[in-house]
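I hope you will forgive my troubling you with a question about protein structure. I am sending you one protein, given as its amino acid sequence and as whole-number tokens for its backbone shapes. Thank you for your consideration; the sequence and its tokens are set out here:
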Amino acid sequence: MDAQEFKRIKFPKVRFAPDLLHELLTETAATVHDEGEQLVIDHLYIERRMTPLNLYVREASREQAEKAVLDYGQAIRDLAVTNIFPGDLLLKNFGVTRHGRVIFYDTTSCAW
């Protein structure tokens, strides 16, 4: 998965719509806090925006699709080498980054 972990990250509250700010502070109060002009999130993961591989292959040129499918095979090989076995090898569980790399991102179907 292509994700980065952050702890105690602060955002200016003015960047949030009032309804969203209210919902964050009430629904996720255990991990989201109001500190004056800042909204503090205790723990979060940020993932790169990806296009699901199944959709990418449908819309890509033949050359791009072939490259993505080969990288899909490499991603499966890389997972196996690190002893991670996706329970589901569906294309929709992999995504293509803006740089054309294929990344596994469905951690709900993993056997660790």
